[in-house]
Amino acid sequence: MAGALQPDTLTYKYTVFDFAFHPTADIIATGLITGHINCHDGAGLFTVSKDGAIGALDVNTGDVLIKKPDAHDHPINAIKLLTETILATGDDSGTIKLWDVRTGSETMQYSDHDDFISDLDFDADSKTMVASSGQGTISIYDIRKPNMLAMSANQDDELLSICIVKDRRKVVVGSQEGVLNIYSWGDWGDCTDRFIGHPNSIDTICKIDEDTVATGSSDGIIRIIDILPNKFQGIVGEHEDFPIECIKLSHDKTYLASCSHDDTVRFWDVRHLTSDRDEMEDDSQEAQETNEDKDSDDDQGPSGDMDVDSDDSDDSDAPKKTSRRPKKQAPAANNPGFFDDL
Question: Which regions are annotated as WD repeats (predicted)?
Fold first, then answer.
């Protein structure tokens, strides 16, 4: 998509609940509330559904390659391709399962939550998966081991989205109350910082780079947030008053796409975000090299390596809602090496 005109808005007759970018090509697949999948190219596609089934489709022919009708006992609410061979799914009862995509067999099951799994993220280097849930906790798993590594304290708020940032030093979690809870890696007991300011629930998070995320809220607005130091950069797009269901970054980091209850997928040019960051890093590196030339004995590391937590923004008196967020219907999924950002 680099250098191309901004894609036109995709409009459907029904609500789009999820979509995925191709990891190397300008291709997008969308999954609708009706169970229909739209895609114009590619080799294959994983799907999950409200009846707890997992399937694999040949996108070119529409043929069903794999069908596991009883993969989960409850509707599947979250899906993430962790590696080329391992798929993770989370359902409305709080169960997470890992699947070997080569054989279609279940390799691991975790039943540590008692409410819906809202989102999943994965760090490939440490083989660690993090999950957010409607019960107000996040859980941490080494996917090579059968037992959960840790679970956070209950935030008394539904946690709806999760994202690993800061080169695996932080995990950012969006909540029903509109608070971004920030956890330090390895210190899972409670969040170490909170970013308050979203007036509505943070239903989806997308990492722009290690220091910046985009948030999609139920007020229909997509915001850009700097993480530690926490700062609101601005609004990149909106779907009027319709809740944002999903946001994702294209493979070349040119466009951020979003889907909403207005039955559209829209594209937002975010090249300025990554280009500005690159320029800042280049200037910082140049200044550091200059300082090192002036004083060869100066062994101080770059300021970018500092990791500052601030609990001052923690508003423990913030009111808590008691209403539950309706569970999302199961998103469309992806296949190994095809839509591996889902």
Answer: 69-109, 110-151, 244-271
Q: Judge contact between 152 and 188, C-beta under 8 A.
A: yes
Query: Helix H segments across 80-184?
Result: none
**105 or 161: which leads in pLDDT:** 161
Measured CA angle at 236 (ends 16, 325), to 5 deg: 45
> CA of 28: how far to CAs of 51, 150, 255, in Å?
25, 35, 12
Scan for tokens 């890696």, then name that residue. Answer: 185
Tokens describing residue 290: 């200059």
Question: What is the chain's Cα-based Rg?
Answer: 20
What amino acid occupies position 303?
S
Question: Could you give the CA distance from residue 115 to residue 72 in angstroms, rounded to a whole number?
Answer: 14
The ranges assigned to domains in the chain are 10-289
User: 26, 326 in Cβ contact below 8 A?
Assistant: no
- H or E segment and range at residue 271: helix 271-294
Residue closest to 170 by CA, chosen among 119, 217, 211, 219: 211
- In this structure, the number of other CB atoms found within 10 A of the CB of residue 159 comes to 27
User: Is the model more confident about 265 or about 54?
Assistant: 265
Stated as kind and residue range, the H or E segment containing 292 is: helix 271-294
Most confident range, picked from 45-54, 188-197, 321-330: 188-197
Residue 294 is inside which H or E element, if any?
helix 271-294
CA distance 328 to 202: 13
Report the percentage of the chain scoring pLDDT > 70: 75
The mean per-residue pLDDT over the stretch 331-340 comes to: 37
Q: For residue range 165-222, list pLDDT tens digits in order.
A: 999 999 999 999 999 999 999 999 999 999 999 999 999 999 999 999 999 999 999 9
Strand-by-strand arrangement of the 117-123 sheet:
117-123, 128-133, 138-142, 150-151
User: What's the CATH superfamily of 10-289?
Assistant: YVTN repeat-like/Quinoprotein amine dehydrogenase (2.130.10.10)
